[in-house]
Specification:
Strand order of the largest sheet: 4-3-11-10
Largest sheet: 4 strands, mixed
Distance between the termini: 52 Å
Low-confidence stretches: 1-5, 414-420
Radius of gyration: 36 Å
Number of helices: 10
Length: about 425
């Protein structure tokens, strides 16, 4: 009996220790998993809500979750002791009483688990974020987005380009096409864009050198050797050989400027599909496509491609929501530029193309990927498990564009809203 009294507390302590470790591990795993799911849904709903706001020409507003702090604890207690209801008159051990029948051991075990998450929501309605959010996308940003293997160039440039303009040698506009889905001439923009995509529209890095001195002959360089040596100590500055007037050898101090990105074409543009021919300056530096026979009957133009801001990308997607849920509902489709050909018209390809972005207006179905309610109406994005649309690609691109606008300082260090 006394051996049992000694073993029972040890047994309960072992059980408590094992349960505490198991509960703590399971609780942490479940909390982490739930947090990841909530954060993903939080970001998706934030994007969809602002697309819907843009469709109604309302201000957009973004929140971010810069920090999440989790806390948890486990407390346990154990009570164990004998319950002796009586003793026998005699005992087999001197100095001890023997419990009578009905005596036993009573034990109490309690285990409490608590956990919580504190998170902060910071508003991005500040000048640091808005300046970047309202500025046109730069070619360097497009170069980063082109590295995404999920979205095609057709999708990326359909979102990012606002207009395509062709100017002649005198700077006069020969042709201009707007990426406006409301316009009846929208198909002309699509025709121009997808022919440029076929021509390998891309981003290249260009390096330029800026002169920091006048051209000098060898005698001048020797006479000013001390100043030339000091100038060459400046980073990215060097004395570069050059030809002077009359063919004499000379030198000039040059400074290498930071590389700049520009939009260019890697392959020969499909001029037969366009109302103009692209000037040689539009081709990438290492491209050989600018050589060959050109149609002299068409004007040669310098391409000017204006990019959208991320704010305008939201407005463009908001327009798509209005068009596909309006009285004369229709889908804006993206043409697969690889299918354009001499014997196939753009209209024929559009008939077989996939919609760019799909949002349903009304009650959300059970197979919705995300949904929000705005001004009493529900808007939902259906799941696209069979890749019947480009919706998933658009959401990925938009999320990455939005991340690129979050420059240092745009997310406040102190929270605007603290929720516990």
């Amino acid at each position: 009996m006394f051996r049992m009294l000694k073993l029972v507390p040890l047994l309960f302590i072992s059980v408590l220790t094992g349960c505490a470790g198991l509960t703590n591990s399971t609780s942490f795993r479940e909390m982490s998993s739930a947090y990841r799911e909530v954060l993903e849904q939080y970001a998706n709903d934030n994007v969809l809500l602002n697309i819907v706001r843009s469709s109604k020409s309302m201000p957009v507003s973004f929140l971010d979750m810069p920090s999440v702090m989790g806390s948890g604890g486990i407390s346990n207690s154990l009570q164990a002791g004998p319950s002796i209801y009586g003793v026998a008159p005699g005992s087999s051990l001197a100095g001890f009483f023997t419990p009578t029948g009905g005596s036993g051991v009573s034990a109490g075990v309690s285990l409490a688990v608590n956990n919580s998450f504190n998170f902060t929501q910071s508003s991005l309605d500040n000048s640091s974020f808005m300046v970047s959010f309202l500025s046109d996308l730069k070619p360097s940003a497009l170069a980063s987005l082109l590295n995404s293997q999920l979205a095609t160039r057709d999708v990326l440039f359909s979102l990012a380009i606002e207009s395509i303009e062709g100017q002649d040698a005198q700077g006069k506009t020969v042709a201009k096409f707007y990426n406006d889905p409301y316009s009846p001439k929208f198909i002309e923009f699509q025709r121009t864009l997808y022919n440029l995509v076929r021509a390998g529209i891309s981003i290249e890095q260009t390096q330029t050198m800026m002169p920091v001195s006048a051209p000098m002959d060898a005698e001048t360089v020797n006479r000013n050797m001390q100043g030339v040596a000091a100038a060459q100590m400046i980073p990215m500055t060097a004395l570069v050989p050059m030809k002077l007037a009359g063919g004499r050898d000379g030198f000039q101090l040059m400074r290498m400027m930071p590389p700049e990105a520009r939009i260019c074409l890697e392959q020969r543009a499909a001029d037969e599909q366009l109302s103009f021919r692209v000037a040689q300056s539009a081709y990438c530096k290492n491209s050989k496509a600018s050589s060959g026979v050109f149609d002299k009957s068409k004007p040669e133009v310098k391409l000017i491609i204006k990019m959208r801001s991320v704010r305008n990308v939201f407005e463009f997607l908001g327009a798509l929501v209005n068009i596909q849920n309006g009285p004369e509902a229709r889908m804006i489709k993206v043409v697969d530029s690889g299918k354009l050909g001499e014997n196939v018209t753009l209209e024929q390809i559009l008939a077989q193309s996939k919609p760019l972005f799909v949002v349903n207006k009304g009650s959300a179905s059970g197979d919705s990927m995300m949904s929000v309610t705005y001004q009493g109406t529900t808007y939902s994005v259906p799941k696209d498990d069979h890749n019947a649309t480009y919706t998933n690609q658009v959401l990925v691109m938009l999320s990455q564009m939005l991340t690129l606008t979050k420059v240092p300082g745009s997310i406040p260090l102190s929270p605007a809203v603290l929720i516990k």
